[in-house]
Amino acid sequence: MKNIFQMPYEIAYYDTDMTGKMTLEAMIRVAILVSEKQSTALFRDARYLKPLNLGWVITQYDLEVTRYPKTFEKLVFYTQATSWNKFFCYRDFWLQDEAGTRIATIHSTFVLMDLTSRKIKTVTEEIIAPFGGVKENKIYRGEKLPPLMNASGQDYRVRYFDLDGNQHVNNAKYFNWLLDPLEKDFLKGHEVKKAYVRFDKEVMYGESIISQHEFLEENVTLHQIKTAGNLCAEAKIWWQEI
Amino acid sequence: MKNIFQMPYEIAYYDTDMTGKMTLEAMIRVAILVSEKQSTALFRDARYLKPLNLGWVITQYDLEVTRYPKTFEKLVFYTQATSWNKFFCYRDFWLQDEAGTRIATIHSTFVLMDLTSRKIKTVTEEIIAPFGGVKENKIYRGEKLPPLMNASGQDYRVRYFDLDGNQHVNNAKYFNWLLDPLEKDFLKGHEVKKAYVRFDKEVMYGESIISQHEFLEENVTLHQIKTAGNLCAEAKIWWQEI
């Protein structure tokens, strides 16, 4: 496999929760950092995209974690742009521990957004070719999630520091909104084993969201994040008791 | 000066706000990471303190930032344990940019907390001597801040991921609570030049806080963070228009 990019990373105390295990939010933001490092190495980072008034936006994660690393652990984060078509770019991430064991895999979908019109733009060879993915017309559609029937909800107001360089709430922040409503007693005793997250609509400063969830079956939850009337993200999460 | 510990650090996109400048929260958490790295090098990190049922807690920051570093910048973070007495340990941090210019200085006060009783414990030679600070009886008391007369307030509910290994809200999270209520229009146009923050009482899971602030004069704000009836933190912040 070509164009695999890697970065060693030592888990910092601030990447972990109160039990000392890496949070999903931290895993996602370090993964995205690795893809940014690859972009920098290929002269395709924000300094290339900003003058084109473009930014990368993530529309989907499909992830599986077999073991959560702990503070002080030294990992290697890997990433590879796998394929792309007119609108979607697919990128994988995986984490390897010191024993050489893969402990997490993240499949992701990126799109290019015009920073003024907020519309998705077509991907060009010039932008994407250096990453070495395969150009193919295959579109990966995620699982269609059922509607929530009996959800409980928790409100979150967008904070200034939730925003990123694309002037909207950074995708990693959604993991806090998705998981926090399950509350400490549950979160201390359960780990996310698998998650499918789809981002439908960006969330902006001044908005409040409601994060709703319900149990589809034991240890499987369905989630929706909504602003007034709009579905912004949905997720299905498979939990494991610890 | 002896026992100065340093760590190179490259500013990641997630350390910055929507304008690409490092946030105070990120600056503080990376600074504390450097002190943890020094603790590890001296065999005095959490793996040494946890069996003693102790944790370091920060009670005070007195900081000055002359320039906020931006995404991609490579800095060196320095730290030095300067002095200590029966209850208080004083530690400085400073950040140097690639040109060798010091761009920020943080004076901090640490105490040792018993993780069960939540009481402050006396500092022992065995715990602190390896850091090489001077033992002296001098206690640095911060500025006494006036009461708020006409403050506006914003509520924040403690989230599960606000908690750290000491099972309470991590001190860096307070910077989000302190600054967010000033809102985007102000925050985009102003930088924290100097800040004095005192932590009076820990904030636990299940609590909500109110973050109050008022302008003492143009570009100087006073802040209080309170749970029901209790003052948990107060701050004075000097701003600079940008």
* Unreliable stretches covering 5 or more consecutive residues of chain A: none
Mean pLDDT of chain A: 95
Q: Number of DSSP helices of chain A?
A: 5
Most residues in contact, chain pair and counts? A-B, 37 and 36 residues
Radius of gyration of chain A: 18 Å
Q: H/E element string of chain A? A: EHHEEEEEHEEHHEEEE
Essential attributes:
homodimer; twelve-stranded mixed β-sheet; alpha+beta; 242 residues; 12 strands
SSE layout:
2 copies of one chain form a homodimer.
Chain A: E1 5-10, H1 24-41, H2 46-49, E2 54-65, E3 74-84, E4 89-96, E5 102-114, E6 120-121, H3 125-128, E7 134-135, E8 152-157, H4 173-179, H5 183-189, E9 190-199, E10 208-217, E11 220-227, E12 230-241
Structure summarized in a few sentences:
With 242 residues, chain A is of the alpha+beta class. Chain A has helices spanning 24-41, 46-49, 125-128, 173-179, 183-189, and strands at 5-10, 54-65, 74-84, 89-96, 102-114, 120-121, 134-135, 152-157, 190-199, 208-217, 220-227, 230-241.
Q: How would you describe this structure to a colleague?
A:
The structure is a homodimer of 242-residue chains. Chain A is an alpha+beta fold. Helices cover 17% and strands 41% of the residues of chain A. Chain A is built from five helices and twelve strands. The first copy, chain A, has helices spanning 24-41, 46-49, 125-128, 173-179, 183-189, and strands spanning 5-10, 54-65, 74-84, 89-96, 102-114, 120-121, 134-135, 152-157, 190-199, 208-217, 220-227, 230-241. The longest helix of chain A is centred in the first third of the chain and has 18 residues, at 24-41. Chain A starts with a strand and ends with a strand. Chains A and B meet through helix 1 and helix 5 of A and helix 1 and helix 5 of B.
